[in-house]
Amino acid sequence: MSITSTDWAVVAASVSASVFSIGGAFWLDAKRAKRQARIAKQDELKSACARIISGSMKVAHKAGGLRLAMVVRSGLTEGLNVLLRLRKPVDPLELNDYLFSELAPILEAQSVVWLSDDTALIRSAGDVVMAVADVINKSTAFPKDRQLDSSATQYDQLKVALRRLTPLKFDSKEEFVRQASV
Q1: Cβ-count burial of 5 within 10 angstroms (0-12 exposed, 13-18 middle, 19+ buried)?
Q2: Which pLDDT belongs to residue 67?
Q3: This model's pTM is above 0.85
């Protein structure tokens, strides 16, 4: 039995067709995997941005609650309630944990955004995080007449200390100005 050149041509054609088919399948699979990886990365970035936005709203809400707590738990009566052990004193570490429970997901989402190559998105995420910090600072700041200046005279410091004995008042106009500045 002898193999003719036509037989070799058929074998070569079938082998080359198989090689091309296998190569094409690998190429299509690689393209599909690359597309799926790109889509997964985009979904992760979208999820991170959504976590930053929703987390910032939660922190703003908690900062408003802290502002309300400052108004309610201020003044001489509050000091007496704490002194007579009718009310627990405010623990700064509890407040820190209270705020950080909402800040942690924002910061984790920001780290996901940092790993992207989009500088505008990185900058925007940083701006949102800085705005959240600004909301917290402005929400929990003492009114200007109750802020203690270390360079002030002893008389001025005494006046500020006496002002701090009176409860904070909720002034709607002042609150509107404060919220507009945030």
Answers
A1: exposed
A2: 84
A3: no
